[in-house]
Design brief:
By secondary structure, the protein is an all-alpha fold. Helices cover 55% and strands 0% of the residues. This is Rho termination factor N-terminal domain-containing protein.
Length: 88
């Protein structure tokens, strides 16, 4: 159908494990598809050099939430912001 888009998960096993661990559908699909594309061990080695969210200021966390398009972050406390960012 024109204009319709079918989303698919390339590694259903990884997706289901992530969902059972509490990951959002979007996050689980993103990781599962990367694992299928690049291999599970390659995805596990990825990561940046950023400090943990606990070391960020509230302003930095709010800025990051805005960057990734989250809503409802302006009145959240630090712990709530961290949860939002980790589970987006």
């Amino acid at each position: 159908m024109p204009g319709s888009r079918r989303n698919s998960v390339k590694d259903e096993e990884v997706y289901q494990e992530l969902r059972e661990d509490g990951a959002s559908k979007q996050k689980a699909a993103r990781i599962a598809n990367a694992a299928a594309r690049d291999g599970r061990s390659a995805v596990g080695r990825r990561g940046g050099d950023a400090e943990p969210y606990e070391e960020w200021t509230v302003d930095e966390l709010r800025h990051r939430a805005k960057e990734i398009g989250l809503h409802g972050y302006s009145d959240r406390r630090k712990g709530e912001l961290i949860d939002m960012l980790r589970n987006s």
